[in-house]
Design brief:
The protein is mainly alpha-helical. The protein has 13 helices and four strands. It has one domain. The strands form two sheets. It has a two-stranded antiparallel ribbon with strand order 1-4. Strands 2-3 form a two-stranded antiparallel ribbon. Helix 4 runs antiparallel to helix 5. The protein starts with a helix and ends with a helix. The relative contact order is 0.12.
C-alpha cells in the first residue's frame, strides 16, 4: 500500500493512459450502469427493487473482488507481478487528484474570480455552484477535501492494508456503487439502498481514522472536541467526522444549509461558532491535508515494521 500510494502521489493516473484505457473506476462504473439500466425497474414494488438492488450489488462486489484475488494468485511468485499489483492499486487511491481539484478552487478564489472558482468547485460537489458566494465556495471545497480524504485516500489504504488488493478493490466497488446508485431519490432509494448502507459500514472505521489524523496533524485540541461534539449532527454517519475535525482545526464553520436541484436543504452547522471560510482557509486546509497524509504514511510504515518484527 505504501508503494502504491507513492506511485499515485508521484504520477497519479496520467492523461495519456486514461485516453487509451480509461480508468479502473470507469470500468466499474460501466458495469454498475449496465445493471442500473437493466434491472432498476421503477414500476416494481419497493421491496422487490430493494432485493434486486441488493443482489446486484453483492454480485458486482464479489465478481470484482474475485477478479482481483485471481490476479494476485496469477502474479504470485512472478518477480514483476508486484509491479502490476502496485500499479493497479495506485489507480484506486486519489490523494493527488483530490489535492489538485481543491487547489484549482483555491487559486481563482484567492483572486476573487468567483466564476472560475464556481466552475472549479462544480467538479467536486453536487450542489448548484451558481448559488454559491465566496464563503460557500470555500466551505464546499473544504467539506469535499475532508470527506474525500476519507473516501478516496484513507479508506482504500485501510482496506488494502487489511486485506490486500482484493480488499482495496472490494472497497472501491462499494464506494463506486454508493456514488452512482446510493442516492435518496425516487429512482434510487430502493435499488441503491443496500449499497448505501454497505458504504456506511465500509467507511465506519476509516472516517474516524481520518478525523483522528486531521486532528493530530493540526495539533489543536479544538479539532478533537468539535469532531466529538458535532460529527453526529451531520446527515451522514461518517462524513461528519472528518468534516467536523477539519472545521475545528481551521476554526471555520462547515456544512449548513445548501441547495441541491433547486431545493434548500437545512443542514446543521459544524463548529457553528467558527468564522466563515475564505481562500486562506482553503489553502490552510490543503496544508493540513498534506500533514495528515504524511502522518498516515508514517503510521503505515510503523505497522509494516511491527508486522515484520
Amino acid at each position: 500500500m505504501l508503494a502504491a500510494w507513492g506511485v499515485e502521489v508521484a504520477f497519479g493516473w496520467p492523461a495519456w493512459l486514461y485516453a487509451r484505457i480509461r480508468h479502473p473506476v470507469v470500468w466499474m462504473g460501466a458495469l454498475i450502469d449496465l445493471c442500473d439500466r437493466s434491472l432498476n425497474r421503477t414500476d416494481w414494488a419497493y421491496g422487490a427493487r430493494y432485493a434486486l438492488g441488493a443482489v446486484s450489488t453483492l454480485i458486482i462486489i464479489v465478481a470484482l473482488t474475485g477478479l482481483a484475488w485471481g490476479l494476485t494468485r496469477l502474479l504470485a511468485g512472478i518477480w514483476w507481478g508486484i509491479i502490476i499489483e502496485i500499479t493497479f492499486a495506485a489507480s484506486l487511491i486519489a490523494s493527488r487528484s483530490l489535492y489538485g481539484h481543491v487547489a484549482n478552487v483555491a487559486r481563482p478564489l484567492n483572486h476573487d474570480d468567483l466564476s472560475e472558482a464556481r466552475l472549479a468547485v462544480s467538479m467536486i460537489v453536487g450542489r448548484d455552484p451558481a448559488q454559491l458566494d465566496a464563503p460557500a465556495i470555500a466551505r464546499a471545497s473544504l467539506e469535499s477535501l475532508a470527506e474525500n480524504m476519507s473516501d478516496g485516500v484513507i479508506a482504500p489504504l485501510f482496506w488494502g492494508a487489511c486485506l490486500g488488493l482484493p480488499g482495496l478493490v472490494a472497497y472501491k466497488a462499494v464506494n463506486t456503487l454508493d456514488s452512482m446508485i446510493g442516492h435518496r431519490s425516487d429512482i434510487y432509494e430502493a435499488f441503491g439502498g443496500f449499497a448505501a448502507r454497505l458504504d456506511d459500514i465500509a467507511n465506519l472505521v476509516p472516517a474516524r481514522l481520518t478525523a483522528m489524523l486531521i486532528a493530530l496533524a493540526s495539533l489543536r485540541l479544538r479539532s478533537f472536541s468539535v469532531a466529538f461534539r458535532d460529527a453526529r449532527a451531520h446527515r451522514s454517519p461518517n462524513a461528519g467526522w472528518p468534516e467536523s475535525a477539519m472545521a475545528g482545526a481551521l476554526n471555520v464553520r462547515l456544512s449548513g444549509p445548501r441547495i441541491y436541484n433547486g431545493q434548500l436543504h437545512p443542514e446543521p452547522w459544524l463548529n457553528t461558532d467558527g468564522k466563515d471560510p475564505d481562500a486562506a482557509s482553503v489553502r490552510s486546509g490543503l496544508v493540513l491535508y498534506r500533514r495528515a497524509l504524511i502522518l498516515g504514511a508514517l503510521i503505515l510504515v510503523a505497522i509494516g515494521l511491527a508486522v515484520r518484527l
